């Protein structure tokens, strides 16, 4: 999920699309697929092969619309952004609370952590990033 800076979007990657202020949408890239959203239509093929952190232009949903074409910013997936983008089917823990939890548990690189109740994975992503590169997170969901 976390790659070096300057990475290029590839088939099968999950990228995050910025669709407005605080509106992030996760998207798994599949050749030939099309994303239909409020902003317009965006071809996955127009994203694949482009550097992450760039804008992609789509087609308007309105026939005959000659105004400015819709654009989305394509970002690399990260634990911090995933917390904001993940669909909230469960009660999610946000960054400020996650920071307190990680600090109070005194977690750092190389730690081993057991978590009960993965939920949306928001806390799990942040813990994994904290204990990397040699640590391990064991998470169980019921």
TrEMBL record:
Q: What is its main location?
A: nucleus
Pfam families according to UniProt: GCD14, TrmI-like_N
Q: Name one GO cellular component term.
A: nucleus
Q: What is its EC number?
A: 2.1.1.220
For this chain, one GO molecular function annotation is:
tRNA (adenine(58)-N1)-methyltransferase activity
Q: What top-level branch of life does the organism fall under?
A: Eukaryota
Q: Is tRNA processing among the key words of this record? A: yes
| Annotated compartments | Nucleus
Query: What are the UniProt keywords, alphabetically?
Result: Methyltransferase, Nucleus, S-adenosyl-L-methionine, Transferase, tRNA processing
Write the protein's name.
tRNA (adenine(58)-N(1))-methyltransferase
Q: Which organism is it from?
A: Trypanosoma cruzi (strain CL Brener)
